[in-house]
Amino acid sequence: MELLSSIDADAWERAGGDPVAMLSALRPGKLAELAEDEDFLRRLDEVVTDLRAYAGEPRWYQSGDAGAVDALPKAIAYFSPEYGITAVLPQYSGGLGILAGDHLKSASDLGVPLIGVGLLYRHGYFTQSLQADGWQAERYPADDPNGLPLSVLRRPDNGEPVQVTVTLADGKLLHAQVWLAQVGRVPLLLLDSYVAENEPALHEVTDRLYGGGTDHRLRQELLLGVGGVRAVRAFCGITGHPEPEVFHTNEGHAGFLGLERIREYHEAGLSFSEALELTRAGTVFTTHTPVPAGIDRFPRDLVERHMEPVLASWGVPLDKALALGAETYPGGDPHVFNMAVMGMRLAQRVNGVSLLHGHVSREMFAGLWPGFDTEEVPIGSITNGVHAPTWVAPEISDLGYAADADAGHLWEIRKRLRTRMVTETRRRLRESWRQRGASGAELTWIDDVLDPDVLTIGFARRVPSYKRLTLMLNDPERLAALLNDPDRPIQIVIAGKAHPADEGGKRLIQQMVRFADSETVRRRIVFLPDYDMALARYLVQGADVWLNNPLRPLEACGTSGMKVALNGGLNLSVRDGWWDEWYDGGNGWEIPTADGVDDPARRDELEASALYELLSKNVAPLFYEAGPDGVPGGWVQMMKHALRTLGPLVQADRMVGDYVKNLYAPAAESSRALAAGDRSEARSLAAWKDRVRQAWPEVRIDHAETDGAELSLGAVLNVQATVALGGLSPDDVSVEVVYGRPGEDDEIAEPNYEVLTADGAGAAGDSLTRFTGTVELGRPGPFGYTVRIVPRHPLLVNRAELGLVTYPDAPAGMTNGDLR
Fold it and tell me: What are 284's strand-pairing partners?
């Protein structure tokens, strides 16, 4: 970027950092002049040399630090409906896309052989502006792909653009060409339906991100999933890139990729069940929402209409395919096809995006694994991270380890970044008011908006109701007093978009804008429209404090505060998402929550009051307590502590490394194990699962007992269970003692497990099998136990995978005792 900016700084700024747009706008002869400029050519050669080294040299993934190189997947295909790569490629709406972009960038930095897959939206998400009354307005400017940093994927033999085709309802064919964005070392394939082969209505499939009706969204997701796999196959065939061994579905939007992979295996001679096992073994599914409304759910009959002709041509049973997305749990809708449910059924490994979100997801989807304790539900977590080079200000990066920087120097940099944000805020605010109809003469007050020396709070995110944009307005007079405090004022910069169909979100924005328009506070609080990556960089680099007050626990992760932390800012947040996990009492502030209060208005009132208290009694005093050198020592000390404790954790390099070690490598291992011996292991596992499912209704616990030993701390309890296996072998099951502290309703809280060993036939003969084992009583207090049976197979990832478990008919009778 420095090289391009040096060509013409004004042109670079006017182009918004878009190299294609800037170079196209240079005056005639400028490029010829540069070709004769030896200093420029030298610097250009240095950049090219560095880029080639970056693209070709071995990195972390190739070094062995990620694990034995031969055990790692040769390639991973990463599917997402949106990507936030750069502001000049507006293919994102919010956190999901920004996360996907950061995932690709860090994968590139680490040398992870990722292939990104998405759609190329001709109109992106939308451009936001404000009407005179503060109501959100949307525009959808069209982007010409030829003017973006993209190239068409072409066939090497004839140079023709590669196309993929997907069959829709009524046998219609949806065609798409494939654009390639090179994200460092990572290729990103973007499918585009604006091709001549499509009928006019199908041109619009990739018109807008999250736009259109239900049928439109379903077509987009069929193209992303089915067409995306076909684009990957074409890309690998043309370029020689290794074929993916692992497929990562970033949310449920790309879930149909699993059906396409089943089709591939089915055509290779596997049955549906056998193909399903191979597909599951090599698939990772990440859920990003703890809110049911955030999940795509389509009418079952609509999905059936689109899938029936496709599946018929594939030879795949329609009923089995539809069952993948069926809400078969209590409270589920039998008339709905749930994309997240399908994603989980098609993936052997599932994760949420923070520790808390993992727990919430296990509760949310527990119905898919009935009979298992919530913490046994096979949904793990990998906490999100952010790509530091994208979000960290150069001044901070140049410090090296910023936490060790001189306090005065660090404070001076923070003031410089705050000043830069104030300048940009004034520019954007003036532009917004002109769009709302104000004249230049009415806007002279904007020259005094914000103060570079005042404590500055940032708040920027999407505007669904649960993120509570207007919580700070719960007591407008109290907020105004904080903003206009004569000794310790605060100022707030706010940005965010509501979905075009979300009238409630638009009303929240209007409420905030009207408050910020008031002459009594308008120099201290600002709402900036059209929140995008470019604006986000100013905010996360310049804010002293990042405010986050979602309705706990509805924030899956929330990465904007991570970016602030890397720039030396501090977080003031509800303990939700990542902050619940990494807040340590000294690296920011926790907004107390009123979790037990059922009345939403009362809860908002209590939490808003706690926010005002924190700002007035903790945050502002610490910021303004400066020493003789003008540096607030306590504030800088907290900044440094936050940099030390959060800096290594919040980075996407850590996140991608966790995916590689905890999900990608194990998925590749499972996939290879099932593919071994001409896929005989996949056939064997599918047959075993079918046999177990058929036999399971006859599996029961006939009797379980202990030896009557005294329940005392340190004692060993001998347990014996006699079970009927319904024709299964003892090797097919795991008979377990579940023990621990009894909770409510006699359930075992925080259970431990001990596997019993088959010990011959039961007293009634060969139809029963006896299992025995011991449990050491190692913790004082109430004690309870029960016995259960679950399927067991060496290729299962966890005991809950089949969703089958058998307990005694009267489990309450199995709990007893109090250890002393």
Answer: 248, 349
List the structure tokens of 144.
């010409």
CA 18 from centre of chain: 27
- For the chain, the 3-state helix, strand and coil shares in percent, each to the nearest 5, are 45, 20, 35
Q: Give the Cα separation of 458 and 524 in Å (integer).
A: 12
Helix (H) or strand (E) holding 582: helix 577-582
From 458, 449, 390, select the one nearest 423 (Cα to Cα). 449
- Global pTM? 0.95
> Residue 624: enclosing H or E segment and its boundaries?
helix 620-624
Q: Where does the pLDDT of residue 743 fall: very low under 50, low under 70, confident under 90, or very high at 90 and above?
A: confident
pLDDT of residue 596: 87
- Nearest C-alpha neighbor of 724 from the set 694, 689, 693, 695: 695
Residues 6+ apart with CB under 8 A from 679: 265, 268, 270, 274, 278
CB-count burial class (<10 Å; 0-12, 13-18, 19+) for 441: exposed
Q: Per-residue pLDDT tens for 608-633? A: 999 999 999 999 999 999 999 999 99
Angstrom distance (rounded) from CA 798 to CA 518: 58
Handedness of CA 579, 582, 584, 588 (dihedral sign): negative
Residue 747 carries which DSSP code?
A: P
Q: Which residues contact 148 (CB under 8 A, 6 or more apart)?
A: 20, 88, 89
Do 546 and 573 touch, CB atoms closer than 8 A? yes
The residue count for the chain: 820
740: left (phi over 0), alpha (psi -120 to 50) or beta: left
Q: CA torsion sign, 337 to 340 to 341 to 342? A: positive
Q: Are strands 716-724 and 700-706 parallel, antiparallel or unpaired?
A: antiparallel
Angle at 86 between CA 446 and CA 122, to 5 degrees: 100
Dist CA 51 CA 46 (whole Å)? 9
How many CB atoms lie under 10 A from the CB of residue 457? 24
**Sequence-distant (≥ 6) Cβ neighbours of residue 599 within 8 angstroms:** none
766 burial via Cβ count (<10 Å: 0-12, 13-18, 19+): exposed
The torsion angles phi and psi of 699, rounded to 5 degrees, stand at -80, 130
551 CB-near residues (< 8 Å, 6+ apart): 466, 467, 468, 603
